[in-house]
Specification:
Radius of gyration: 30 Å
Distance between the termini: 107 Å
Number of strands: 9
Low-confidence stretches: 1-19
Number of helices: 17
Order of helices and strands: HHHHHHHHHHHHHHHEEEEEHEHEEE
Structural class: alpha+beta
Strand content: 15-25%
């Protein structure tokens, strides 16, 4: 009689009785095998990668056994047995960044549908509700590494280190500026070098990776670094030198980004130290004339200090810096960067249009006469390269013309 009723109730119930399981239990198990196990076994990026560049995958929170998975998720507080649709697991999957990737949005929708359907069945399953399991779910990486690889933090690092320097690049590489080159180079060639996505640093980073401008195996050989540094052929010519803060910023981001993508960081101790300064490129220019002929082609640097009216002295930290090379005519000119302590960044309005604070300024000049920075990009000019200092007053408007001009003879020499 029981067998007859089971046949009438359908194939799932027949299989359940044959296995000694309830129809509800088999239903939850079937859903798990058909909807959840493929997620567990997939090697494609999950929706977690929308917020975590590496180190977190949905499969880290699943096991092949549904009872073990349910017990561990429940013990961790990730399942709401009374209201499964309000489970933390679903809420975490549903999170989206400010600029979601359409491809990951499709993955996210599939994961949400699969896990929601399984949880709704699972919380009605007596076997799963009674399941016990030992151990933990999730990534084994420390929270510091997970936090460091978060997409929003990586994007902010890209903005601070590369996007903030794109004033050097946009004339050739932004479609807002380079349309005039189509007649000379052709539409296809100009489109190929248009890796800047206007007003969208996240899309620009994706474009740089997709176009091969970032080398994840050898970040120091990335074209986005070697071309503006003049280390390989570049139609736009050199934009900065190896010792320039911009070079160090590019290299720092690229090295860190590649390590994150490769999953190299396994402990907090392996993470790079945070930068002490935030350096943002302005459109203000400094020109120094009359350098000694013997110093031509040498790198030079000027650090700028603001006058502290309350303390009646110069600021202990620099507020600006310039790095360039002396040309054959004994002239050095380059754009100025403003400098902020990393623990006291400027407001967003200042980030968008960085500019030196009001003067006067104390300018300290350094010249790399031995060209140490040509061979060691990490070498910082200091006492051995110090030449002298002078005060700068007056307006300092943005633009290549007119720059702020200082005669070399004005510096108090050593």
């Amino acid at each position: 009689m029981t067998a007859y009723r089971s046949c009438c109730l359908g194939g799932l119930t027949v299989l359940a009785l044959a296995a000694g399981l309830s129809a509800e239990e088999l239903d939850a198990r079937t859903l798990f095998e058909r909807r959840v196990v493929p997620i567990l076994k997939s090697q494609a990026p999950s929706s977690c990668t929308a917020c975590h560049l590496s180190g977190v995958e949905l499969r880290d929170y699943l096991r092949e056994d549904p009872a073990e998975t349910f017990a561990l998720l429940r013990a961790a507080g990730w399942i709401n047995v009374e209201r499964p649709d309000d489970s933390k697991l679903l809420a975490m999957i549903a999170r989206t960044p400010p600029q979601p990737d359409p491809r990951l949005q499709r993955v996210q929708a599939e994961e949400l549908a699969a896990l929601r359907e399984w949880l709704r069945a699972a919380v009605k399953d007596p076997h799963l509700l009674q399941a016990k399991a030992s151990g933990t779910l999730g990534t084994e990486l420390p929270v510091e590494v997970i936090r460091h690889a978060r997409s929003d933090r990586v994007l902010q690092a890209f903005v601070d280190n590369i996007w903030s320097e794109l004033g050097r690049c946009i004339n050739c590489h932004s479609p807002e500026r380079n349309r005039g080159k189509i007649k000379e180079l052709g539409q296809e060639a100009v489109d190929a070098i248009s890796w800047v996505v206007p007003n969208d640093p996240a899309a620009t980073l994706q474009r740089l990776v997709a176009d091969g401008n970032i080398d994840l195996d050898h970040p120091e050989l990335s074209p986005v670094l070697t071309k503006p540094a003049g280390l390989v052929k570049h139609g736009g010519g050199p934009k900065f030198l190896r010792g320039d803060p911009a070079y160090r910023k590019f290299l720092s981001f690229l090295t860190d980004y590649a390590a994150i993508q490769r999953g190299d960081y396994r402990s907090a101790e392996q993470l790079p130290p945070p930068p002490a300064e935030l350096i943002l490129l302005t459109s203000q220019h400094l020109r120094i004339t009359g350098f000694p002929e013997r110093w031509k082609d040498s790198p030079w640097q000027v650090d700028l200090y603001a006058w502290d009216h309350e303390a009646r002295t110069w600021s202990p930290q620099r507020v600006g810096t310039v790095f360039g090379r002396i040309n054959p005519q004994g002239v050095g000119q380059h754009m100025v960067s403003v400098v902020y302590p990393s623990n006291s960044p400027p407001p967003e309005t200042v980030r968008n249009e960085p500019r030196l604070p009001h003067g006067p300024w104390l300018a300290r000049l350094y010249v790399d006469r031995e060209r140490k920075t040509d061979h060691d990009a990490g070498y910082l000019l200091g006492t051995a390269e110090f030449v002298g200092e002078t005060e700068i007053r007056g307006d300092w408007p943005p633009g290549y013309q007119p720059p702020k001009i200082i005669e070399f003879a004005r510096f108090h020499h050593r």
